[in-house]
Design a protein that fits this description.
Blueprint (H helix, E strand, L loop, with lengths): L4 H18 L3 H5 L6 H31 L6 H30 L7 H9 L1 H22 L3 H19 L10 H27 L4 H26 L9 H26 L2 H21 L14 H6 L9 H6 L5 H19 L6 H19 L1 H6 L3 H21 L2 H8 L3 H7 L4 H13 L2 H6 L2 H16 L3 H5 L6 H20 L11 H24 L6 E7 L5 E7 H5 L7 H49 L1
Antiparallel strand pairs: 1-2
Helix pairs in contact: 1-3, 1-11, 3-4, 3-7, 3-8, 3-11, 4-6, 5-6, 6-7, 7-8, 8-9, 8-11, 9-10, 10-11, 14-15, 14-18, 15-17, 17-24, 17-27, 22-24, 22-25, 25-27
Length: 623
């Protein structure tokens, strides 16, 4: 543990020095009162300690899930649980200090403090982080399987994003790029820091630890460059306080990258200590950036569209613009890259893999990028009709292509089992990956979600629950949540079509083809029903009824909506656009399902032919 002290000292000294140098410069710019030196220094110090605790949690989990073969041990889970409790306490303390930071000083415990913590975005983000960390602490302590520990790790990553989604990345021009870039940067940097710390405390194979560090370094640097380009949009603005911190963090990161390369070549423990200390300095500089005002948020003239979406949409959509006016969706572009790279890596290890399956998989990944990053994805934020079209592609067409790619079958053939490893004399890494794949597939949650009834209800019910309730109008202004909604639709589609036409066997009992056909036919009318409801509606579903106090003290009901606030001069009538969305939902929902029906019938025919052939061979063998 003493090897961790230099990193802890380096991080704390860096964050305190940066906070002292920044002083109170940000408060006048943001229109806030000076809360005093205790709050001024306490906020970054608590944030840095919370980041360190989160790094311990993720470092222990990654160490037990990826670096060390098998299920995380009780010791690893105990360390992760204890660090998660510390993280929760520090996050809650940061929330209290953040209220003081934006209120001009500490607020006395009581109703005023509670109100201050729930009405402002920044404290809410830290409260969400504290709750998530507490749940992780309990979860990981009770986790007994690899898949359960993986779930705790995923929740820990999500908990990290609470402060990110309420920080400076979600405001200003380019926030649609900056928010996911900062989120990926924070997760990758935290895992990198934690993995290096775990390597010092419990040394294991440097190859595996180095591989995790290398992946984290690539993601950290790439996302950091994108976030910096958004938050510091011009070279001249590098001279600002925020820009200087960006340059300092970039310089130290370059040094860390050199140390990482040298460590992977030599395996030196001293270089591990150096790498950890330098990463702690980078983390501290990143915390200090939250105390400065990014140049992109400086006062400037912007349109309502840019303020709400992060980018301009000056012209109405045409077929040409939908195909050519691209704007990267960082989340789904990154997901598509991961899916392509992993599938291609497995593909190189397998001979005789059907070409059609590979084409289907890569086509699904490409269509996912087109649906989210082309003009379709861009105009989906501004027009309900394009938004519905995007979700029809994501929830039906893309999942069909992905499940026909049979990734699980490919993985099982590419990753050797224990017998193959012993016969070939290969190392255990492939066997570990195979075991983890089987553990994930055997997870109770996945078995539940792939039950035909559950998969069908989630698939056909999601549009009704999301669009025909206040949920859509409440969540839409929170632009950073929309990728999560799209991921929900994508996941629902993958689970449903995996059950219906998937080449890979589903966890649990396989449905006979006649039952699959019945489930598919039963689900088809719901897309038409959803479209009919949209077509018959008298008011746009995106509108949110609200109540304001009138002059006389009574209640005055008014209707507002996200699309009207965009103030697009070319925007069509909202109800007319909803009618277009209804027709698109109808056509783009039912037509692909007809294709799925044909695929299912073909699969059924091939299965029947194979069964007949097997029966004839068995009879011939008995004669």
């Amino acid at each position: 543990m003493r090897r961790l002290l230099p990193a802890l000292a380096a991080g704390l000294v860096t964050v305190l020095v940066a906070a002292l140098l920044l002083g109170r410069s940000a408060y006048p710019v943001l229109g806030l009162a000076d809360p005093g030196e205790l709050v001024q220094l306490g906020v970054p110090l608590l944030r840095a300690l919370a980041a360190g605790a989160a790094a311990v949690v993720l470092g222990a989990l990654v160490h037990g899930l990826v670096v060390v073969p098998g299920t995380p041990s009780a010791t690893v889970r105990g360390v992760a649980s204890g660090a998660a409790w510390a993280w929760a306490v520090l996050a809650f303390g940061t929330a209290v200090f953040t209220v003081a930071d934006v209120s001009g000083g500490f607020v006395a415990p009581g109703p005023d403090l509670v109100v201050g913590m729930v009405v402002r975005a920044a404290p809410v983000g830290w409260l969400a982080c504290a709750v998530g960390a507490a749940v992780v602490a309990v979860w990981v302590r009770e986790a007994r399987t690899w898949s359960s520990s993986l779930g705790a790790g995923v929740l820990a990553c999500v908990s990290l994003l609470g402060p990110v989604m309420t920080g400076h990345a979600i405001d200003g021009v380019g926030k649609d790029l900056g928010t996911p870039a900062v989120a990926l940067h924070v997760i990758a940097a935290t895992v990198w820091l934690g993995t290096i710390g775990a390597q010092l405390v419990a040394p294991v194979s440097p190859a595996r630890s180095g591989a995790v560090s290398t992946v984290c370094a690539v993601v950290t640097i790439a996302s950091g460059v994108l976030a910096s380009a958004v938050l510091v949009p011009s070279w001249g603005e590098l001279a600002t306080a925020y820009g200087v911190l960006v340059l300092a963090a970039a310089a130290v990161t370059v040094v860390v990258l050199g140390v990482l390369v040298r460590r992977r070549l030599t395996g030196s423990t001293a270089l591990v200590v150096t790498e950890l200390a330098l990463l702690a300095v980078v983390t501290a500089l990143s915390v200090a950036m939250t105390r400065a005002v990014p140049p992109v948020q400086a006062p400037f003239h912007t349109t309502p569209t840019e303020a709400m979406l992060g980018f301009r949409i000056p012209d109405p959509p045409t077929v040409g613009r939908l195909l050519t006016e691209w704007r990267l969706d960082v989340w789904f572009a990154a997901l598509a890259v991961v899916l392509v790279v992993v599938y291609a890596r497995w593909l190189r290890r397998v001979e005789g893999w059907p070409l059609g399956r590979s084409v289907s998989w890569f086509a699904g990944c490409a269509l996912l990028v087109v649906a989210t990053s082309s003009g379709i994805g861009r105009y989906a934020d501004a027009l309900y009709s394009v938004h519905v079209a995007e979700h029809m592609l994501i929830s039906i067409v893309v999942p069909v292509l992905l499940v026909l790619g049979a990734p699980i079958t490919l993985a099982r053939r590419a990753l050797p089992d224990e017998g193959d490893t012993q016969r070939s004399g290969a190392g255990p890494s492939g066997t570990d990956a195979r075991d983890r794949l089987e553990a994930a597939l055997d997870a109770p949650l996945l078995r539940l979600l792939t039950h035909p009834a559950v998969a069908a209800v989630v698939m056909v019910g999601s549009p009704f629950a999301f669009y025909l309730t206040p949920l859509f109008s409440l969540l839409q202004p929170l632009g950073w949540l929309m990728p999560a909604i799209s991921l929900w639709f994508l996941t629902a589609g993958v689970l449903f079509f995996w059950v219906i036409i998937g080449v890979d066997p589903v966890p649990g009992r396989e449905l006979p083809h006649v039952a699959r056909l019945a489930v598919l036919i039963a689900s088809m009318p719901f897309h038409a029903l959803f479209g009919a409801i949209l077509l018959a509606a008298d008011t746009p579903v995106a509108q949110t009824p609200s109540t304001l106090a009138a002059d006389g003290g009574g209640g005055q009901v008014f209707v507002t909506d996200f699309y009207s606030r965009l103030r697009l001069p070319w925007a069509p009538d909202l109800l007319a656009d909803q009618h277009v969305a209804a027709l698109l939902s109808w056509g783009m929902g039912d037509l692909p399902l007809v294709g799925v029906l044909v695929i299912l019938l073909v699969q059924w025919h091939r299965a029947s032919v194979a069964e007949d052939a097997a029966a004839r061979d068995l009879l011939a063998a008995r004669r």
